[in-house]
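Quick board copy: two proteins, each given as sequence then tokens.
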Amino acid sequence: MRLIELQVDPRPVAIARMGIGVATVLMSLEAFEILERISSGRLAAPVFSEAPAIGLAPLIILTVLQISAGSAVALGWRTEMAAGLSVLLSFVTFLADQQTYSNHRLLVTLLLTYLLFAKAGIAWSIRPAPEARFVPFWPQLLMMTQLSAVYLFSAISKINPTFASGRPLATWVWITLPWQAYTIAAIMTILVEIVIAIGLWFSATRRVAALLGVGLHLSIVILMDHETLALVAFAVACLSLYPLYLTRPTLTARHRRAGVSRRTGSNEERHRA
């Protein structure tokens, strides 16, 4: 059995769908704030110098469409169409002005793209498909790989004397601590991100890695003194993928055969019905 044929429980990816949809709505509000300042005559940095600044009326329409599409993804209403529209509107936002670019917006845009193939609206949605008991695993694998790459790259990019000294953290958080505490926190952040990126993939460590991930994102949201909306959106998008790791099938020959048996039995039941 090829990996692309592996079928799994639809509920974990439904949780991911909800989180990605909520993150899309939050980021549309963040983008509105940025583009509204630009449309009011402040500094603009368009991707194409010839492009006119987006006006307030088109900006409101764009934001309403983004919120509607993100809400539809979260609720599981016409999920694939809503995810595709969200991807398109996200690229429109990227092209409107360079200042709308962010790592978390790019991450969520990629996750929405994977949702197009994940059949994430089968379970826990406005329009569920109770007769469909399984969904393809390969889009979930892409989502998990994408998130782990984010954690790993984030950790590697922080391995430098400036970040390890703790000075950047001292300017980012609102709490005042001795300078040694910032240094320890910076080094621990690097180690925790590496543990999360790798540990989520192994059954012996994935629960610990998930707990560390929850603690990391909560600490970021609580302690950072700026860009709270963006940080919340990033946390929701990342944490909603954790059930994919926690329920990931063991990719052995025995489990592949079991997957074939489950799907074959499901097909026979439908034919008999």
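And the next:
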Amino acid sequence: MKKFFPVYVRVPLIFFIVFALMEYFIDSGDKPAFVKFPMVALFLFVFLFILIAIEITLSAVNRVMYQLLSPEEKAQKELEESLSFKESTWFKNLMHKLTKTEPIEKEADLLMDHDYDGIKELDNNLPPWWVYLFYICIIFGVIYVVRYDVLGADDQEMELKKELAQAKIDVAEYMKTAPDLMDEKTVVLLTDAPSLDEGKTIFTTNCAACHRADGGGQIGPNLTDDKWILGGGIKNLFHTITNGGRDGKGMIAWKGTLKPKEIQKVASYILSLRGSNPKDPKEAEGEVWVDDSAPKTDAAAAAPKDTTQVKK
């Protein structure tokens, strides 16, 4: 085999196989493993050094062993090395184990009595690889029938349906908590101080030019009163910031600049400005917005009682 895979082919081939396996099994992200982990590079260097050392040692041993051979053994070894690939002893032994073929000299012993227009039939054994493969197919068929037809295991169609159903459940769960998939239907009002502070920073950076830093309104409307042009509340405000204001004269859509989580924070901060009474605010625009989803109060219970009624 060595003459078919000389040392200058064998050493690089073994090295790059080990290198490829390490790159495949070691999770190094977007960088090669030997770059991200210096120990991998050190291991590869040591492995290559040992591989070359082994080849040098084996070559020296072979030379010494060859010198110890008798002239007849040297001639026999040279003869074997001069044979072609198919004529080599190991190849013949391998093919005989796989096929169990008989030498052509023994064909007379294999002849059968059948004769079809001069065509004679040989009683050759089936190749072992074919026999073993046939047995494996029988065993596989029995296991398959027992597993799916007797025990009722899930077939491919049922497995696909279950995986698709589970995928829908996983996507729904992810949608509940994924900030970047938030929309006006799932957004909720934030009231914690860190979120409002971040919302204030976003507002100051992107919105203060039109609404003033205090929200009192300039080019854009006043954001501190009770009136809204496109509806108040966190859901309406999230929709307005995301998709923009009125066509032709409203603000731009910020969905290409701000992430949904950032829009949620700035909308929550804007709603916290209600009633802050900034200096010289712009005149209120729009209509008073009432949250229809807020719980209704009992008007009868809230009406003042007449304390002048005569007690009986």
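Board note added afterward: Residues 298-303, 305-312 have pLDDT under 50 and may be disordered.
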